[in-house]
Amino acid sequence: MVHRLPTRFLTLSLIAIGVSQHVIAAEPEPEPEVISIIDQNRSDPFEDINRQMWDFNYDVLDHYLFRPTAVFYRDNIPRPMKNTIYNAATNLDEPSSVVNNVLQGNTADAGNAFGRFLINSTLGLFGLFDVASQIGLEKKHDQFGEVLAVYGVEAGPYLMLPAYGPTTFRNEFGDQVDKLYFPAANIGFIPGLGISLIKGIHIRAELIEQEGMLNDALDPYTFVKEAYYQNRVYDIYDGNVPEVEFDDEDFGDDFDDD
Q1: What is the pLDDT of residues 30-47, one digit of tens each?
Q2: What pTM value is reported for the model?
Q3: For the chain, does the N or the C end have fewer beta carbons within 10 angstroms?
Q4: C-alpha 135 chain-centroid distance
Q5: Among 72, 88, 70, which residue's Cα sits nearest to residue 80?
Q6: Residue-wise pLDDT tens digits, 212-235
């Protein structure tokens, strides 16, 4: 069974910085269901506990364990070796992407994920080499949490879990379902944990140069939370996030002249 990535609490926040620069309008007049997903209630009833978990994750785990490991990995492992190890680890995510895309009705993306897994598992020597990307089949991982969002399941309360980082009730349930797919369900505890560590350390190392943006945030906790939600919306819409337009009436009398 493949387990959680230990550095996701920082990774998602930094990824979302780039995501925010690529959110474009796909429809001039979004329909109500579009707004319901983008403008969903970002409930944080456990904020006090969540903030304590954030401090533990970032000030303790990342500072003393994850970041030093990522720095060593970046500076001492040759780039070709890092890429092949990471490719093999992420190749195991493709079967779940096939199923999750089928459940969303995205047959093209399901075919893309199936093709990637087939090609990289054979020509790519069990995923060590990303041959599929070289012939135009780009990597795109879809999770069961995205399936639930597409079918209208509310995100639920925001959670900051120790070592794991930001999530919601919906996405945490989705993560558990993703573990039931082949080959994740057939991998033992130790190999699964090792795969997650490889992916987490690789991504953490790639983002070392960007972490200053997080450190400069006035409220890192809020920054990470907003980045997490923005990243989830970006994933749900496959990068084509509709622009929500508001009329002045949407803001009531807050901005009326006295």
Answers
A1: 344 553 555 456 889 999
A2: 0.76
A3: C
A4: 25
A5: 88
A6: 888 888 999 999 998 888 888 888
* Residue reference for tokens 């001039």: 28
Q: Are 174 and 71 in contact (CB under 8 A)?
A: no
Give 23's contacts (C-beta < 8 A, 6+ positions apart): 230, 234, 241, 243
Q: What is the DSSP string of 32-76?
A: HHHHHHHT-----TTHHHHHHHHHIIIIIIIIIIIHHHHHHHHHH
Q: Report residue 91: phi and psi, to 5°.
A: -60, -25
Q: How far apart are CA 131 and CA 38, in angstroms?
A: 35
With CA atoms as reference, report the closest residue to 96 among 28, 20, 180. 180
Cis, peptide link before residue 28, omega less than 30° from 0: no
